[in-house]
Amino acid sequence: MERGTENRTRNRWIAVTCVLLACCLLYALRPGQGAESLPDRMGVVGMLLTALTLVATAFGVWATQRAGAVVDDVVAARQLSRAVALAEPMSPRVLGGDRVVADVTYSFRPYAHARGAALPLAPAGRLGGLVADYQALRPRRLVITGQPGAGKSVLARSFVAELNKSRADGDPVPVLIALGDWEREESFRDWVVRHLVRDYGRSWKRARQLVDAGLVLPVVDGLDEMDRAEVPLAESRAQSALDALAGYQEGLEPAPLVLTCRTDLYDEFEASGRPMLDAARVEIDPVSAEAAAGFLSRRAGAAYRQAVWAPVLDELRGRPQGMLARSLSTPWRLVLVATAYEQANDPGELLACSTREEVGDTLLGHFIPSSVRAVTGTRSRYAPEDVHAWLGTLACGLQEQGGGTTDLVLPELARSPGAVWARRLYAVLVGVLALAPVVILMSDGDTDAVMWGLSALLVVLGAAGLRYLRSGGTGLWGRADFALPPWGSPLWRVGMRLAWSGRGRWAVCVAALWPVLVLWRVAAPQRFGGVENLPMTAAMLFTPALFFVLLTAYFLGSAAVGPSGWPRTGAFFALIVLWPTVIMVLLSRSAGLGPTVDLLVLSMFGSLYCALGGPMAMYTCWLLVNCRRLPFRLSRFLEWSRTAGLIRVTGAAYQFRHREFQEWLTRHPVPARPAPAAHPATAHPPTRTTTP
Description:
By secondary structure, this protein is of the alpha/beta class. About 55% of the residues lie in helices and about 5% in strands.
């Protein structure tokens, strides 16, 4: 009942706003009354457009605050479950780009602490049975440990997907969250709420409602990536995180939780006497040499190039405890081998390596070129050298933020410690947009109330834009639940269906009154109440398209769109601001008002955009500062890297495929010259050339 009252109130406010603005416009432009000259009409149109923008902004803020305030817990959990299912797809490239995948097995380890969880009577011990084993735990707290590259993150993602698929109404929704950005000052419960907002498009009230109701199961990844190696265990952020997890409860009972960690680090926590209480621990088993050989032999690359792969497979089967077998004992390393030598290169060069580190460097040296080669024919094609250099720049940037940072969140790039020049450029831009027109207006001796009011408006907009330089500033249109999918995506059809169904239908119909009235007034003949201005009609035809795109995107969540939807949203709002700017500049040119008026118009709407979308403007400044080191369309490149298997996505953050890959890029940010293949006759057949 309360929800229906809220919808009716919202629709009434929309209707009243549209009717009032339409009446003002019709009165101001009516022949024989109101504004007669073209400059006066231009001023009226500009004020109405500005008023509409401010009203839309206020409504957006109000809708953000009120969204989901009163929603049934089961319904809210069901909506989050759908968002998680869309946000955490298992990319084929993550599994090596083939139907053949490495079998991940695990075993329960005795918990060192007396307060351990009760284990299942007959553990499955395999990837497909982890959900059943977890549901048999009492309490439902699980720690997944394994060696680096053992597949902890893949196992966690698979667990989230399978548990989310089989959950019933009333069960908690599994949510995968990277632990890298947690700080000691923030409670774990607040941290989970923040990630539900940022990564899965929930409103603050609805996210807190779900957490307080116990309908969120945090699957926390990356405990071992929070600190540098030299940090003492007792003073580490990881130990503080474990202490915070111990206090994460539902009443007097420990809240359900899943945690991943490297084996040796968690052994240290157990030895220190401060592991996570009331939990069970599973250890991911190493991949045996026979299983590794079987995995590689069934791959398409080995099937087509049996002679090239035979020495490596024989080494694995003949020396199951040898250096190569120990180096390829994790799913991550096996996927690296399969990717590096699937289509080219000679895997026999691994036999010449003497250490596991040398094997890793050799595999990672082929990883980027082989991944680029595997996605040949896609729309976005990049040179391997450029891909290596760009990813190396991003990896070094994460290294500057701290050794435990793994999340690459686009809105936060301009706030990183190394983005000082980007923030300075943004401050200069906002200052020029706000103060330069004020200086021009005040230089004219004949100033009136309109000039003073316009100057005050510009100063206020500039101050609103500068507030984003603070670390806690967020944009009005940088909401987590508002992001645009790529053009041509089937999500647009989903958004249109949502916009035209149920409670959204009346809001769409009422809100559509504004662009319809404006177009009618401009395009209709004079005997029907219009001005029949064909040039203006052509300019105004863009209004319905922007309007329907805006409403359609409003009903889509960022979890469905992904982290690349945020820059796309900023560009769309730039287009919305550019539309009235172009119209007013054209009117000014036709009236012969001179460049001063054009400058005022451009400055006013530029300041308005910075005030509404400051984080997007800061991100653009960051791209301009780094244009020689990174592609300007960075989000498009990162999406391509995700397709290539070099980058993965967790909620609203990009992450490198593996921590070993990220650390290797920090050591090798610039691609080295390609070395000659070990067996060029087999790996790279000579190409016949002709002399002209």
